[in-house]
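Section 5: illustrative case.
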């Protein structure tokens, strides 16, 4: 079968090969035919080494498709079922799951070091234990979440990561209050989803911050009340909040420098929500006096916080009701053979989300 493979960490191009095979099928596992997958910035971060991932590997974790085979002991799934890929399923038995923080379950991520594929040259891993830049993938049954027939594969794929992460940051983690002021720094697919989440929650002012003009224009279509470049953020803070700072600031870039800007843009007693996934050696610093005196809440948000299955259901309900726009997030479509075009579109900021049709 065909799959896009990164041979070594640090390479910026993927090679689409036709000699890749899935491995690991057996009890508790399902084999999926991937129909659509989104390109998330985390895939690029894994390629360049910001996020730890053994190589060679098949990127992709934001996918949807059909069940083509079921291992022993799997219940609730049948061949032909339409599913989205959950890259962080809850095991239901670990300490995090038992205390109601299933989004922090690490059981599935422990499988990231187990190969999902093989080639004549040796083992190949799947990013985050999945690897959806492939025609087929074998995953644990909990990674395959059934979707209703009216949800297209490309929409389901986005719900599998970017949409859930952004919406959940605003709704689950920060719990944006109606009438509040919000700034979102970084307006790719996840940032736009955070903007939509803040709008759903009833925020009065939503300022989108991004260096790319096309993304600022897109943010206005998705609910931002204004959009500014990073250089204009200070002026927006002064105009909108009289210099006090925003009630909620979302950092969706994953860098210490923008997190520090976000902290300084948050009002005293306000909430800074860290959504971007950054590098282990990129240190965010606050001094002990400001940490105490300003009483700003610093809330990291992994996968949108909360129960991901409930978050999927909520995203579908909001989409059906016309409260959020998911089709509009897909600005580009490519076939798997053109995967490197999608990478370029992500790196330049040209795309909000590129759908790769497998």
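Designed sequence:
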């Amino acid at each position: 079968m065909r799959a896009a493979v990164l041979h070594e960490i640090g390479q910026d191009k993927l090679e689409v090969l036709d000699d890749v095979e899935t491995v690991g099928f057996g009890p508790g596992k399902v084999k999926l035919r991937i129909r659509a997958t989104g390109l998330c910035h985390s895939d690029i971060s894994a390629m360049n080494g910001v996020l730890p991932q053994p190589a060679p590997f098949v990127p992709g974790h934001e996918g949807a498709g059909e069940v083509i085979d079921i291992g022993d002991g799997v219940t609730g799934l049948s061949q032909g079922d339409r599913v989205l890929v959950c890259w962080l399923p809850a095991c239901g038995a670990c300490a995090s799951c038992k205390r109601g923080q299933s989004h922090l379950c690490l059981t599935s991520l422990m499988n990231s070091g187990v190969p999902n594929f093989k080639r004549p040259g040796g083992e190949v891993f799947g990013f985050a234990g999945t690897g959806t830049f492939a025609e087929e993938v074998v995953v644990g049954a909990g990674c395959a979440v059934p979707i209703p027939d009216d949800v297209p594969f490309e929409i389901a794929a986005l719900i599998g990561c970017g949409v859930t992460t952004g919406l959940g940051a605003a709704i689950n983690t920060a719990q944006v209050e109606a009438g509040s002021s919000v700034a979102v720094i970084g307006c790719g697919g996840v940032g736009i989803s955070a903007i939509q989440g803040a709008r759903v929650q009833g925020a009065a002012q939503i300022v989108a911050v991004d260096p790319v003009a096309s993304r600022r224009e897109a943010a206005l279509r998705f609910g931002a009340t204004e959009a500014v470049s990073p250089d204009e953020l200070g002026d927006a803070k002064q105009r909108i909040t009289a210099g006090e700072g925003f009630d909620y600031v979302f950092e969706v870039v994953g860098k210490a420098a923008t997190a520090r800007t976000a902290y300084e843009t948050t009002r005293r007693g306000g909430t800074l929500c860290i959504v971007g996934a950054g590098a282990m050696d990129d240190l965010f610093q606050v001094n002990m006096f400001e940490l105490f005196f300003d009483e700003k809440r610093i809330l990291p948000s992994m996968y949108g916080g909360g129960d991901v299955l409930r978050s999927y259901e909520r995203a579908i309900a909001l989409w059906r009701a016309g409260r959020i726009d998911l089709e509009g997030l897909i600005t580009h479509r490519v076939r798997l053979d053109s995967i490197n075009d999608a990478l370029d579109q992500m790196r330049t900021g040209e795309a909000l989300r590129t759908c790769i049709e497998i």
